[in-house]
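BUG: 3D viewer hangs when loading the predicted structure for this chain

Environment: internal workstation, default settings.
Expected: structure renders.
Actual: progress bar stalls at 90%.

Input used:
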Amino acid sequence: MDHLKIFSPATIANVSCGFDSLGLAVDEIGDEMTFVKTPQKGVEITNITGAELTYDVDKNAASAVVKKMLLDAKAGFGIQLTMHKGYFPGSGLGSSAASSAGAAFGANQLLGKPYSNLELTKFAMFGEEVACRSQIADNVAAAIYGGFVLIRSYQPLEVVKLPVPNELRLVAIHPQIEVRTEDARNVLPKEIALKDAVTQWANVGGLISGLYSNNYELISNSLKDVIVEPHRKKLIPFFDEVKSAAIKAGALGAGISGSGPTIFALCKGDEITEQVYNAIEKSYRNKNIDFEMYTSKVNKEGIKIIS
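Structure tokens produced before the viewer hung:
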């Protein structure tokens, strides 16, 4: 293979109770990237559209990942890279993760697929470090593996792919403001009460059990975050209003996507998804803040080759 074009999906990390440990891939929303082998070694970004990102190969998350992989594989060729960002950086929908994971996937294809999904996740985590100074795995693993993922351990890295109930849907609203991942991490407490930790552990276990058993009531009861959301929601205008509207309209639960400002809601079935979409849209009207909205199934495939 000398060239390819891929789609790398947006992702929702944390999924309320699973800070840095749970993530899911989104359908249809994401980035398109192309990779072309070149006789000259190294990596070059030839075009970026959809967002203003650096062309510096050491500071751009995607090119940094490709460069690291080419060196690790001792490749006798280089790669030219193009990127089209399908949604805004700083959205809370894993923008840098789509770039990092897509870069790892694409480079692996041109190298002859020597690396496993777990190894690709590790390379993509390096891209996350370049982008936001943290080697976070939940977003990149969700993009690479597809569906729902659990980061069972960071040292050593262990990723578990979880089942996705067939009727599970999501609604997301992205207020057109930026919340930097670094800022969103800085507002978090350094210590938490034991009772809050116990509650959060139980919710993670309940959510995973609900996914395996197709128990939507258990999923709903478990989509609660008592540790991160109370601190981060202050960065997102009208968060409580949006969450309340979603739940009243029948959502299983709602919360902050990644570091925000995107707010997501999980729903059962298309009818309730439409009701929740309309309720969220109505709640954000006349707030003097532009916003975009999405509905989607959970993307079970993850990154895919377009051509």
